[in-house]
Amino acid sequence: MHTLLLDSDDVDHNTQYPELIVAIEEAFAAYERGHAQMPAKSYIDLPQYNGDFRSMPAYLDVRGGELSASQGGSDESRAAGDWDAAGIKWVNVHTDNNAEYDLPTVLGTMIYSDPRNAYPLAIMDGRELTMKRTGAAAAVATDHLAVADADSLGIVGAGVQAYTQLEAISTVRDIERVVISDLDDDRVRRFVETFEDRFDVRGGSVEEAAACDVLSTVTPVESPIVNEVGDHTHVNAMGADAAGKHELADDLLLDAKIVIDDHEQCTHSGEVNVPYSRGVLTDDDIYGEIGQVVVGEKAGRIDADGVTVFDSTGLAIQDVAAAHVVYEHATENDNGTPFDFFGL
Predict the structure, then answer these.
(1) How far is CA 72 from the centre of its chain?
(2) Same domain, 292 and 169
(3) Residues 6+ apart with CB under 8 A from 318
(4) Any domain includes 137
């Protein structure tokens, strides 16, 4: 047996959004039904290096599963697959990396294993994988929670995650107009140049971005920068992934229909963590988890809904589901570099 080494280009090449979005939706459904194991994300804090490590293991079993045909989910997403998978992602956030080492702030390594015998089937770039599955998670939430005719997308934060937000969300909604907002004009320019041939895309203020049908926030701020959105805007709050981070104003959250990815992670390090820890927001203010919406236990977007918010911290089950898609296609396409890990 051989282990497949997959670099960032391999991960990118073997991840198509329509299939990835279905796999992420299947993962949410499996987790909701108790067909997954996902120990709590563990942290190693390294203040001396202005960084941290995070370990994210999971096992998924979607064999024989069936996604709900509830309002919001696409027809394609209702036919579940027949697979199980296991893996662990070792990821970091080192805020000085770019300035001191010319490295990205976030790196990551994914080990994808055969659950039958624990053989490491693949070792792949976790950074590209994270970007892809994060975009796909926002797409799943958008498909269930945004208005059906949404055609405008605002993005606050023009870093690497912004690109996959647009790529993935435009898979589930016919996005025509895009407003990108960032303090760095060069980032905005690069983003616009990347997509100007496919969308009506321009730079704008946070307020202009927030007025769109769908808004994705992908910043690391600890003081809210979005105070108000459109009357029926769906917000993907993707930036908060550690205690103290907070992109959306408390009043906005309190007036919204809030859907989270996982209660423990979101109340510890998601968008709701700050108002939740202060008692401003309680469990009564949280509508439910995305898995409940996906399987039809709770309704997604309904006519009476105004603002909806998806609080996404990023789950290990998403990484395993994405790794499954990548590995299967890489094997079919003869991509990557095989090597004999154990010399057996």
Answers:
(1) 18
(2) yes
(3) 24, 27, 133, 134, 136, 137
(4) no
Backbone angles phi, psi at 201, to 5 degrees: -115, 140
What type of residue is 306? G
Any idea what the Cα angle at residue 152 is, between residues 128 and 200, rounded to 5°?
Answer: 80
pLDDT at 74: 42
Residues 168, 169, 170, 173: is their CA dihedral positive or negative?
Answer: positive
User: Cα–Cα distance between 60 and 55 in angstroms, integer?
Assistant: 17
Given a cut of 70, the residues of the chain with pLDDT beneath it are 64-81
Q: How far is CA 92 from CA 41, 157, 160, 288, 292, in A?
A: 12, 20, 15, 28, 29
Here the tokens at position 161 are 């995650």
Catalytic site residues?
89
Q: How many CB atoms lie within 10 A of CB 184?
A: 11
Domain hosting residue 49, numbered range: 3-130+317-339
pTM of the model: 0.93
